[in-house]
Amino acid sequence: MVKYVVFLGKPGSGKGTQAQYFSRYYGWIQLSTGELFRKHLKEKTVLGSKVEEFVEKGDLVPDDVTFSLVKDFLDKAGADSRIIFDGFPRNENQAKMLDDWSENTGAQLLAAVEFSLPDEEALRRLLNRYYCPTCGYVGNQPGKCPNDGSILVKRSDDSEDVIRKRLSDYDSYASELRSHYRRRGKYVAVDATKTPPEISKFLERVMLKNGL
Ligand code: AMP
């Protein structure tokens, strides 16, 4: 049976860092929709050209396009996979699409964790964020990727005006997502101002408690 966890949280709240930790140390599969879109952009696929404008401006890609990408990924995942959804769902409609998939396949949601962080701290982190275009590693200094030696770059959507837009979009959907997962009894919040190791420890406890 597939088991999965949903990571909610504004850009810069550390979802990707934790998803990478759980992927590296526990073999969880990280499903980052943003990362999948960036791959399509880099490889100049048909889907990439369809979503380019949305991603560059920091707008949400339409739900049907996003879900078809997610569905492709899920169809290829093994029957006993452990999956972390990183950046999906972004609104209640997407959450319902995921619920339907979960009901149809018998997958089990362990928890929906929201990484809570003030906007100004998210902005500060994103303005200092360096990204590996090869493996998706994220750091806070320029230089080389510790995983594969690629030169770390700034993401094109990490400019101040686009960041502010992404943060305000997050706010407009956050409460419907919170309510959705509260109703399902799966909502957990984590203080994302804590250090990455502290957050990992907290999440390890949440996952164990919820049937990992
Ligand atoms: P992220 O890497 O999560 O910050 O996402 C980067 C960009 O990809 C977003 O600003 C959106 O344009 C797009 N994107 C990622 N995930 C989603 C999603 N679940 N729904 C719609 N658009 C998304």
TrEMBL record:
Keyword ATP-binding: yes
Cited Pfam families: ADK (PF00406)
Enzyme class, first EC level, given as a word: transferase
Catalytic activity: AMP + ATP = 2 ADP
Cellular component GO terms held in the UniProt record: cytoplasm
Positions with a binding annotation for ATP: 12-17, 129, 194
Cell compartments where the protein resides: Cytoplasm
MF terms (GO), sorted A to Z: AMP kinase activity; ATP binding; zinc ion binding
Keywords in alphabetical order: ATP-binding, Cytoplasm, Kinase, Metal-binding, Nucleotide biosynthesis, Nucleotide-binding, Transferase, Zinc
Matches recorded under PROSITE patterns: ADENYLATE_KINASE
Pathway field: Purine metabolism; AMP biosynthesis via salvage pathway; AMP from ADP: step 1/1
One GO biological process term: AMP salvage
Catalytic activity, EC: 2.7.4.3
Residues annotated to bind AMP: 33, 38, 59-61, 87-90, 94, 155, 166
InterPro entries reported for this sequence: Adenyl_kin_sub, Adenylat/UMP-CMP_kin, Adenylat_kinase_CS, P-loop_NTPase
UniProt binding sites for Zn(2+): 132, 135, 145, 148
Region of interest (NMP), ranges: 32-61
Domain observations: Consists of three domains, a large central CORE domain and two small peripheral domains, NMPbind and LID, which undergo movements during catalysis. The LID domain closes over the site of phosphoryl transfer upon ATP binding. Assembling and dissambling the active center during each catalytic cycle provides an effective means to prevent ATP hydrolysis. Some bacteria have evolved a zinc-coordinating structure that stabilizes the LID domain.
Membership in a protein family: Belongs to the adenylate kinase family.
Function: Catalyzes the reversible transfer of the terminal phosphate group between ATP and AMP. Plays an important role in cellular energy homeostasis and in adenine nucleotide metabolism.
Quaternary data: Monomer.
Xref: HAMAP family: Adenylate_kinase_Adk
Name the UniProt record assigns to this protein: Adenylate kinase
Origin species: Coprothermobacter proteolyticus (strain ATCC 35245 / DSM 5265 / OCM 4 / BT)
